[in-house]
Amino acid sequence: MDKVLHALFACHRLPERSFFHRGKQFPICARCTGILAGYLLGLIYAIVVGAIPLLIAGLLLLPLIVDGGLQYIGKWHSTNTRRFITGILAGVAVDFLIWGIVTAGFSHGKLIVQHLIE
Fold first, then answer.
1. Where are the beta strands (DSSP E) in 1-118?
2. 41: closest CA among 98, 94, 102?
3. pTM of the predicted protein model
């Protein structure tokens, strides 16, 4: 368990996994920077265009899972650009997965209330 926690949080302190701006290291890694950017882009997309299907949102998570998983087991070395891009895709996906879960919950709750009223 210690190894997993270290792998999840140690990347934020590694200079080779972080972006720099004017000589200062970002406080989070390139992948997490991408995830945060993806949250923002997903929100903007939802406001301007609307929701994406949950299947597409789920598929947007795959690049991060593959990249992060293969890097973790030592099968390949990821780059900051790849980490950032897969992070953006995952951030957008999480926005829409949460939206899908929340709307499904409201729809289900609405059905329960209608059933109780009848």
1. 18-21, 24-29
2. 94
3. 0.77
